[in-house]
Amino acid sequence: MKIALVQKTFARKGGAEQYAINLAGELIRQGHDITVLAHQWDRALAHGPKVQYVPMIKAPSFLQTLSFVRNTQKSLSKGHYDIVHSLSRVFPQDVYRMGDGIHRYWLKVQERNRLKRLMNLFSLRHSVILWVEKQIFTKGNYHIIISNSNLCKDHAIQYYGVDPSLIKVIRNGVDFNRFNPHVRLAYRNKLRKFYDIDESDVVILFVAMNFRRKGLIPLLKAIGILSNTDRVKLLVVGKGKTGYFRRLALKLGIDKNVIFAGPTSELEQYYGGADFFVLPTYYDPFANVCLEALACGLPVVTTRVNGASELIEDEKNGFVIADPDDVKGLAEAIIKLIDPRLRNSMAENAFESIKHLTIEEHARKVCRVYEEILREKRAKYH
User: Fold this and answer.
1) Which of 9, 28, 323, 362 suits a disulfide with 173, CB 3.0-4.6 Å?
2) What are phi and psi of 314, to 5 degrees?
3) Residue 166 near residue 373 (C-beta atoms within 8 A)
4) Sheet with strand 95-97: strands edge to edge
5) Residue 288's pLDDT band (cuts 50, 70, 90)
6) Residue 379 burial by CB count (10 A; 0-12/13-18/19+): exposed, middle or buried?
7) CA-CA distance, 288 to 285, in Å (whole number)?
């Protein structure tokens, strides 16, 4: 098949970008002709799929959104593709993957202050995103929606009335060559030595590109109410301003327990050095970092509003907290995982619980969606 993948940024940055790279690579390995339409891409990936540049107005942000949509439409009109599969917010397309979740829902939960929430609804930036989102889910602008979780599927039905039969839930795959239980042997001692962490210390790992949205504040507060933090270390990995969070850690009396490691391209080393993974996110369609952590044998603590929580069973491979602001509940989960006996038994279950979620199988399921659409197209025109 000749397939167009639309991904605004095709580079090794966050989970969405890495997903696009993994999918494109696997589709090529399975014999398909892939063109990625992107505004920005990593030149080191040039040996992979063909990449077609999509121009975009950089600022203001609402024009960035609109110009990427319009210029993608122009680019697609000049090509001849069997399938157009969008991983970014554009329309129309054959397949839309809800990697960014539902913006209408995100606006509802991301701002606790009612006045600010109302202001967001009237901001030009959010208004444009909501308009584009509405077009995406308008009948005739898609054949099939791919969701990475039941959470997102339910939101698409609730907010846009999408026919449930047109939404396929396909779990993300994980690169087991990179993320697997052997990283513990390979990197544990090296990473702990680098950060001067004792072997007996319990290391909690938190990874995010948006510290506030992903729940670093409740995590710091949860650690702050533990009765004994002498042996607990929190490794914060990711890009973002740290000043507020450093001050909060100092105020809570845990500043010596928190290490801000910054961003990294070698995340597997941090999974190898940690004992368990915590992401008390306020909203995540499906946090790939949770899947990677499980693949590396780490129990995972996350929230119900993370699609990846659908892979977590309490006290089997992690814990699911109903409310991101439930600091007490989060602290209780952390206390349980400080116990090495429970933690080690859950670590054994972590990899087993997701070992079937390979990138190869994920791509095969996506291809079956393509084939279903092609059959519909052929039946329509013959």
Assistant:
1) 362
2) -55, 130
3) no
4) 50-53, 33-38, 2-6, 83-86, 95-97, 144-147, 167-169
5) very high
6) exposed
7) 9
> CB under 8 Å to 360, separation ≥6 — which residues?
26, 173
Q: Check residue 171 and report its DSSP letter.
A: P
Q: What is the pTM of this model?
A: 0.93
Sequential DSSP letters for 189-214:
HHHHHHTT--TTSEEEEEE-SSTTTT
Secondary structure of residue 300 in the 3-state scheme = strand
Q: Residue 313: name the closest of 302, 329, 325, 327 by CA.
A: 302
- All domains of the chain in start order, with CATH: 2-173+358-381 (3.40.50.2000), 183-354 (3.40.50.2000)
CA 114/CA 124 separation, integer angstroms? 18
What confidence tier does 380 reach under pLDDT thresholds 50, 70, 90? confident
Backbone φ/ψ region at 61: left (φ over 0), alpha (ψ -120 to 50), beta: alpha
Q: Which two tokens stand for residue 252?
A: 């809570």
How far, rounded to the nearest angstrom, does the alpha carbon of residue 257 sit from its chain's CA centroid? 26
Of residues 166, 74, 103, the one with CA closest to residue 373: 166
Residue that has been written with the tokens 């940055």 in this structure: 13
6-44 residue pLDDT tens: 999 998 777 788 899 999 999 999 999 999 999 999 877
